[in-house]
Amino acid sequence: MNETRRAVLDALADGPVAGPALADEFGISRAAVWKHVEALRDAGFEVESASDGYALAGLPEYGGAAVEFGLDAPFNVEYHDAVASTNDRARELASEGASDTVVLADRQTGGRGRRGREWSSPSGGVWLSLVLRPDVPPARVPLVTLAAAVAVTDAARDAGVDAAIKWPNDCIVPRRDSERGGDKLAGVLTEMEGEASRVSWAVVGVGVNADVNPDKLAGDATSVRAEAGGVDRRAFVQRFLERFDELRDDPDAILGAWRERAATLGQRVRVDTADGDVVGDAVDVTEHGALVVETDSGREVVHAGDCQHLRPVDGA
Ligand code: BT5
Prior knowledge:
Blueprint: H1 3-13, H2 19-26, H3 30-42, E1 46-50, E2 53-58, H4 64-68, E3 76-83, H5 86-95, E4 101-108, E5 126-132, H6 141-158, E6 164-166, E7 170-174, E8 182-194, E9 199-208, H7 224-228, H8 233-248, H9 254-261, E10 267-273, E11 276-285, E12 291-295, E13 298-302, E14 306-312
Parallel strand pairs: 3-4
Antiparallel strand pairs: 1-2, 4-5, 5-9, 6-7, 7-8, 8-9, 10-11, 10-14, 11-12, 12-13
Helix pairs in contact: 1-3, 2-3, 6-8, 6-9
Bound molecules: biotinyl-5-AMP.
The site of biotinyl-5-AMP has 29 residues, from helix 5, strand 5, strand 8 and strand 9.
């Protein structure tokens, strides 16, 4: 949303305010005020006009303007009812120079997981990608991904879900009887471009099964709706973005926050890597996002792979 429209919206929220007063305040014509009000109505804002002026009477349930309104983090949000993949659109925006932009969709028709896998993205989920320009070398980007996993876990917990992180960056609801450690609520897919010394851009894609039926999803999936009843997606996305913004401003706190929320640490795990399986006790995560596994033949640091939780280390 452009700055004037956003300012008009804020004024309406504090309204009633008369059209001519708005025109004076923002140095625009009355016709321009009217255009902003109509555009806000088109975006789903309920704007009442009475004899004492315009006032905001209701918010759209979801969408870019809805998420931006009242958001305490510096992101612009581009919303789509449907898009192939928010990561693809975010990459396009990144190559055009965008920064701190969020691509948000109600539905994806070609959602992507890691290693070329498919990501089911029916209507009702939270499918979003952040376009970021972190001023760091590529080796520091995993920290951004860890921050996204922490932020999504916190947003899920606030929504009433007993969520935890599963390495590398899944958000799960832990279940004792599950081979994969639990049912998957959300996943993160980070992509970037840059040189050895500096990242040009990073796109952090986050998919959350929010207001969807898990039967419609691939794999052992769950959703916020299935775990906690309904979900306010606008509040969920705002909470996620605000928490993510807090963490990126305080990078030293990210690793500790990740460890605190990790279901994987303290588990016996099997990690399927490009060089074969690594089996052992998961003891830590590094700032590069690697999992430290204590195996029978010593400590291994695993950078990428799929992780299965076998059982807690203490056998409990
Ligand atoms: C991930 O991959 O967990 C990363 C998912 C990232 C999705 C977001 S949505 C917004 C943005 N735009 C995109 O196109 N992608 C990102 P991975 O760890 O590879 O998990 C994929 C596997 O999870 C699949 O092979 C299925 O088994 C399972 N799966 C697919 N869809 C799922 C869903 N909605 N919920 C839970 N599990 C799912």
